[in-house]
């Protein structure tokens, strides 16, 4: 039993070093282009949602409709949050990748 306990660390892999491979699969460059295009579309749609939400908020405030004004306010906040997430997505992923590498 004691021999098994002393031999166990020798059997377990102690140093695994795996990093992302940029050229491991074909189409990685095209995938990066597609992801960049989707990020651009997300930002454009966030701007569109902000404009529409601001219009709804204005109509609600000027027509004494608090429900409509509240929905417009929520839309403004959601569209701004979506723009922040789209813009910071690469930075967020890199941050958590670095945190994961330190574990």
Automatic annotation (TrEMBL):
InterPro entries to which the protein is assigned, alphabetical: DUF6112
One Pfam entry name: DUF6112
Keyword field: Membrane, Transmembrane, Transmembrane helix
Domain of life: Bacteria
Bilayer-crossing regions: 34-62, 74-97
Name recorded for this polypeptide: Integral membrane protein
